[in-house]
Design goal:
Structural class: mainly alpha
Number of strands: 3
Largest sheet: 3 strands, antiparallel
Strand order of the largest sheet: 2-1-3
Oligomer: single chain
Strand content: 5-15%
Order of helices and strands: EEHEHHH
Radius of gyration: 25 Å
Length: 101
């Protein structure tokens, strides 16, 4: 059984099965496929509240892609119970102490 395709004109929405009818409506240009947003996961409110509290405490988010060797080296520097952020903070403070900064 084919999964229904949700398409919508400017003012309404209608479900049609994929096939010639859907292709004809989409080809007309006045109909477009509708993308339904994924529902939020159960703990989304808790996670967002945690992030907001961290931002209020002055935390900043960074996203980096590390080569596998660098990631493994950082991971190997972890002490028991320490997070990766803790390792980076500890190593940076150590480097600053060594350089006199």
């Amino acid at each position: 059984m084919k999964k229904p395709l949700l398409i919508a004109p400017r003012n309404t929405a209608r479900e049609v099965l994929p096939g010639p009818d859907a292709e004809r409506l989409l080809a007309s240009g006045s109909w477009v496929p509708v993308v339904l947003p994924k529902p939020r996961y159960r703990s989304a409110k808790t996670v967002e509240a945690f992030r907001q509290r961290r931002r209020e405490q002055g935390f900043k988010a960074i996203h980096v892609l590390l080569p596998e060797g660098v990631y493994k080296a950082l991971h190997d520097q972890r002490q028991k119970g320490e997070t990766l952020a803790g390792v980076i903070e500890r190593l940076l403070s150590y480097a600053a102490d060594k350089s006199g900064g």
